[in-house]
From TrEMBL:
Name of the protein this chain belongs to: Tyr recombinase domain-containing protein
PROSITE patterns, A to Z: TYR_RECOMBINASE
A GO biological-process term: DNA integration
ATP-binding recorded as keyword: no
Key words, A-Z: DNA integration, DNA recombination, DNA-binding
Keyword DNA-binding tagged: yes
Molecular functions (GO terms): DNA binding
Record-annotated Tyr recombinase domain positions: 176-379
Organism: Enterococcus avium ATCC 14025
Family indicated by similarity: Belongs to the 'phage' integrase family.
Amino acid sequence: MATQIKKYTKKDGSTAYMFKKYLGVDPLTGKQKETTRRGFSSIKEAKLALLRLDVEIAEGGINKRPTNRSYQEVFDDWFELVYKHKVKESTYWNTRIAFDKHVLPAFGSYKIKKISVTACQKQANQWAAEQPNRYQRYINYAGMIFKYAVSIDEIKTNPIERIEIPSVSSNATDIEEENFYDRDELLDFLEKMKDNFPAKRYTLFSVLAYTGLRKGEALALTWRDINFSNQTITIDKTLATGKNGTLLIQQPKTKASNRTISLDSSTIELLKFWRIKQKEELRKLNIMPSVNQLVFSKIEDNGYIYPRTPQTWLKTFYNHHKGLKRITPHGFRHTHCSLLFEAGASMKQVQARLGHSNIKTTMNVYAHVTKEGKEETADIFGNYMKNGKNLGQSLGQKKNPAQ
């Protein structure tokens, strides 16, 4: 059957030409395939496009992959065929955001075969200058697409593997390292939060600081997860965001993140107080607590708190206390870890409590001590050599280091 070229009217009123081409039966699916090409300004242009398509089909068949694809086209294949089937839904959509904002604007429009080592080096340098705490992530993401292109014989080598990773100034990395409170800073923060803001906020940040939970783990907690008799809390789920901000309840970040940890007495008492307070607030709004009542929920509908809300709460807090050091919600996890080390906890104890699958994560990301700890290190060693006390005794170790 001969392919017909048809004239049609576009939305703006102008005339254009199109055609539908029957491609035959797909040998993989057994289904008939066709393609539609439109937007040609003249019959001649449409005929040339049809001739080129006929040649492509004759040379490679209907399933032949284009041989000169853009970085964007290879990314689309990788994201749909590979990455989405390897990671959790929240992970691949958050990764997609990073690609859309940083990687694809840099490389997306270029033919992947034409992207040179020099181009990758220039882009890596630019990311390092603009995003000193995240640039290595973007380099890694960009490299995933090149690596995939190598694996499917689209390119011969991965150009980003041959660049020199830029270094950044120590001032830039210090910003990330200081995303935690020392003992006095934490106690000051919690006192001001307790005195000036709703009990829910005070309870949430106290729990983050005294347990080391990730924000998503805390926002997914139900009262069933807390054993008041044994003074423990079980973490077996996390709240995350998917496509277009959809809220998702997922398994925790890693297998090791499924854990049960102990709670100190003051945190137990605070949670008991908050449970009573929460019931009172819900009763005033004629909301009946659900069977799996969330520990932290939106007051409007008793649903999940959006993951960015704690950051908004902190912003409001710091606007009222401009002199206080600012940290992120994740900084309270850093704080808990730092104070555990300061109190004498072992690397393995901290790894288990924070739910790290690899002790290298504990060592590399969290093995910094607070300013107080740095100043006391020499005295701790001296006391040990003089008196034979262990580090925990020298530091006055307690069950909860922030007390």
